[in-house]
């Protein structure tokens, strides 16, 4: 039984607390603020997961390979790499996916559906995350800060690439000559020196 009903969308919930949390999706209220950056969240456990990205804490550990993760759902997804389970299959092509959200985004690329629209410029996006990243081009928000030099970025991937310039980490390795690179894009460009490919 779900006696607590949302007055706006009519969804029902088992408790008043769950209704209150849901209602924030309508009001936009985000009472939980990150102490490390400007990010805010409408649920406490979302904040806890986010904070671990700053602290580096990864409490969820794979029993097979000892890989560690910030969130339990990420561990469950990782476990499928051992079992090779890919439960989500595309009806348009032969692609299969571990993760439902990636599967949905993939299908939308086939259908051309872009359900997430920017309120400021009308640009449309396949996923909510892509829209959120895009919105920062309007607000100028750069919530991700480099611990070495203070430079700020609007995407975690940009921060990760930048940090490698400080640490010297080069995780992408050429299979032919063993040269190593900071990003996959630079590795692809390098690989053309072996293949002779000239894309332009």
Structure description:
This protein is of the alpha+beta class and 200 residues long. Among the domains are: 1-27; 88-139, Classic Zinc Finger (Double Stranded RNA Binding Domain). Helix content is 42%, strand content 14%. The protein contains 7 helices and 14 strands. It has helices at 16-27, 44-55, 72-83, 100-111, 128-139, 156-167, 184-195; strands spanning 4-5, 12-13, 32-33, 40-41, 60-61, 68-69, 88-89, 96-97, 116-117, 124-125, 144-145, 152-153, 172-173, 180-181. A two-stranded antiparallel sheet has the order 1-2. Strands 3-4 form a two-stranded antiparallel ribbon. A hairpin with a 6-residue loop joins strand 9 (116-117) and strand 10. The chain is globular, with a radius of gyration of 21 Å.
SSE blueprint and pairings:
Blueprint: E1 4-5, E2 12-13, H1 16-27, E3 32-33, E4 40-41, H2 44-55, E5 60-61, E6 68-69, H3 72-83, E7 88-89, E8 96-97, H4 100-111, E9 116-117, E10 124-125, H5 128-139, E11 144-145, E12 152-153, H6 156-167, E13 172-173, E14 180-181, H7 184-195
Antiparallel strand pairs: 1-2, 3-4, 5-6, 7-8, 9-10, 11-12, 13-14
